[in-house]
Write a structure and sequence with these properties.
Shape: globular
Helix content: over 70%
Number of domains: 2
Number of helices: 9
Number of strands: 0
Radius of gyration: 22 Å
Distance between the termini: 55 Å
Order of helices and strands: HHHHHHHHH
Strand content: under 5%
């Protein structure tokens, strides 16, 4: 195959990819607009929102807290060892507290929820889409966005900050356990965290989780509603949700942090 042919095929493939990406972005934007429009409609799905809140927040708490606990313990162990080389081991609590409140707590919680909840939402809605249950909802005169998307979006957006607060507490507590074994008194560890971490730090971290929860839910619902191809398509949509929502969380974390620091 000649070089001009390879170049032409490459340009065609790139163009097709860009057009497909723009099409997906447009469809996603339309779903976002429709979701915000149905918030103020009559017959708000309160019961379904509460059920989704329980599913997303309560049932995700175990894996989130285990992740936070051992991450805090590992972080404190590494930090105490590294700072000990410079005689700064007593400041382990300050480092662990700031790291968890500002970044580790919000981001780790969002990634865990994206893997568990995002995949579950896509699998649930995707199964309904390929079995024509979503079409049945439309045939009955109901709006699938109001019935399926809105409750999950609200539950994830409101539930992720609560999970993050628990994650912060347990991560810092895990660091306390290791710090105590490294010769740092519990009271000194607590004071070093309180003296360094401010209320604005806590609020900044929690504000980001609102965006993370919204991103995870909307990506998962969009992928679920767009699922085609039977059970194989459901599996592919689930994989796309985990990958896309995780990348979106990490990218948005950077830009949100930049904006918050500029305010």
């Amino acid at each position: 195959m000649s070089v001009p042919t390879l170049l032409r095929d490459g340009l065609i493939g790139t163009g097709d990819w860009m057009l497909g990406s723009l099409d997906q972005l447009g469809r996603f934007s339309l779903l976002v607009v429709r979701t915000f429009r149905v918030i103020g409609r009559r017959h708000f799905p309160f019961r379904e929102t509460v059920r989704q809140f329980e599913s997303i927040t309560v049932r995700s708490s175990t894996i989130v807290l285990i992740t936070a606990l051992f991450t805090g313990m590992v972080l404190a162990l590494q930090t105490a060892t590294a700072l000990g080389r410079f005689g700064a081991k007593p400041y382990t609590g300050s480092f662990v507290g700031l790291a968890f409140i500002l970044e580790l707590g919000p981001v780790l919680t969002a990634l865990v929820v994206a893997g568990r909840v995002g995949a579950g939402i896509t699998a649930e809605i995707g199964s309904m889409a390929v079995s024509e249950q979503v079409d049945a909802i439309r045939a009955l005169g109901a709006d699938p966005v109001q019935k399926l998307v809105l409750p999950r979006m609200l539950a994830a957006t409101l539930g992720l900050p609560l999970l993050t607060m628990l994650s912060n507490l347990l991560g810092i507590a895990g660091g306390l356990v290791i710090a105590s074994q490294s010769g740092i008194g519990p009271h000194f560890y607590y004071q070093s965290v309180v003296n360094v971490v401010t209320l604005s730090d806590l609020i900044n971290g929690l504000v980001k989780t609102l965006a993370f929860g919204w991103i995870i839910a909307m990506v998962a619902c969009y992928q679920g509603l767009s699922t085609t191809g039977g059970t194989v398509g459901v599996g592919r949509a689930t994989t796309r949700t985990v990958v896309m929502s995780s990348i979106a969380v990490l990218v948005s974390d950077f830009f949100l942090t930049k904006v918050i620091l500029m305010l």
